């Protein structure tokens, strides 16, 4: 428990009429970016709000750095930075005034505030905007300020609820880059319903559907979760399925149209070479071969439907 940044145990939450999350369990011990993936209404915000102490769970435990968030919320919050889905910005404050205000809310020592605000502005690329009113910033810069308030007190664990939502493509790239940078020396958990977001930014994924965790693992494992790797090959003189099944590593063969063949294989890179070699030796006249992986979208759809 000592080394765990986050531990979530049998977490449940019920709003007035429905359970939003049921029996969520996970542990996080590494730095990097963790994606909390799920379709709209899956329970991502509810989970994040509880972890960050802005919503009280119906049942279950959350430990941040070993501290029970129900028993000792103030101590736990020192280790957490949170950017909710709607950034809590005050439009009539300048960037500088707002970040100073946030530093005070975090009970930061007065003598440390100047340096912390300056360093955070620098890190988030908003130093040149520090005297601007928040209301006059673009969406991308407002999001940077939102991220700045989340990392100002140097927390070990940063939670970002849909951080690129509503941004234009350039702003998305910039905010993603910033997220990767701040994750170099801390753990960042971000929620999204966009698969490409996860691929671009995250090292591991936890997927929530209907209030339950349905997948937890690396992006690559997620990619391969449902379908094993397959090869798709086209031959001018296609072999019989039994001939292909003789090749080491090939587990299943499906003929596609007159010339195409889909081969389920065990993922060994050598299998592709073997198929090419056999085709040449036996005169199958291969014109195409490529490795197919089930797309993230396909995995997402299958897991969502489960
Ligand atoms: N304050 C609330 N009162 C009642 N039901 C709520 C409330 N907030 C969320 N819900 C419901 O709880 C479920 C989970 O919602 P939640 O906002 O956690 O999902 P989400 O994965 O974050 O979705 P989104 O990406 O749309 O924000 C949904 O069915 C939602 O309608």
UniProtKB/TrEMBL annotation:
Belongs to the ABC transporter superfamily. The keyword Nucleus does not apply. This is ABC-2 type transport system ATP-binding protein. GO terms for molecular function: ATP binding; ATP hydrolysis activity. Keywords: ATP-binding, Nucleotide-binding, Transport. The keyword Secreted does not apply. Pfam families: ABC_tran. The lineage of its organism: Bacteria, Pseudomonadati, Bacteroidota, Bacteroidia, Bacteroidales. It comes from the Bacteria. PROSITE patterns: ABC_TRANSPORTER_2. Residues 6-235 form the ABC transporter domain.
């Amino acid at each position: 428990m000592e080394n765990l940044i986050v531990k979530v145990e049998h977490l449940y939450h019920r709003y007035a009429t429905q359970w939003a999350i049921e029996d969520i369990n996970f542990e996080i011990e590494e730095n990097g970016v963790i994606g909390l993936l799920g379709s709209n209404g899956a329970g991502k915000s509810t989970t994040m709000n509880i972890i960050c102490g802005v919503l009280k769970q119906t049942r279950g435990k959350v430990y941040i750095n070993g501290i029970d968030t129900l028993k000792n919320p103030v101590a736990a919050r020192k280790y957490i930075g949170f950017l909710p889905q709607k950034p809590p910005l005050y439009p009539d404050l300048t960037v500088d005034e707002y970040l100073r205000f946030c530093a005070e809310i975090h009970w930061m020592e007065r003598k440390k505030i100047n340096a912390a605000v300056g360093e955070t502005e620098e890190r988030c690329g908003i130093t040149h905007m520090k005297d601007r009113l928040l209301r006059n910033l673009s969406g991308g810069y407002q999001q940077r300020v939102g991220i700045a308030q989340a990392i100002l007190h140097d927390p070990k664990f940063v939670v970002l609820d849909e951080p690129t939502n509503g941004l234009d493509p350039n702003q998305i790239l910039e905010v993603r880059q910033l997220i990767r940078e701040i994750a170099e020396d801390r753990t960042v958990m971000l929620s999204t319903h966009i698969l490409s977001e996860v691929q671009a930014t995250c090292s591991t994924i936890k997927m929530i559907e209907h209030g339950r965790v349905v997948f937890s693992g690396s992006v690559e494992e997620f990619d391969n979760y449902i379908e094993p790797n397959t090869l798709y090959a086209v031959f001018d003189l296609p072999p019989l399925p039994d001939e292909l099944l003789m090749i080491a590593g090939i587990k299943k063969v499906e003929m596609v149209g007159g010339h195409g063949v889909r081969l389920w294989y065990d993922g060994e890179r050598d299998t592709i070479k073997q198929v090419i070699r056999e085709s040449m030796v036996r005169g199958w006249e291969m014109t195409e071969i490529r490795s197919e992986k089930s797309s993230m979208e396909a995995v997402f759809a299958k897991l969502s439907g489960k």
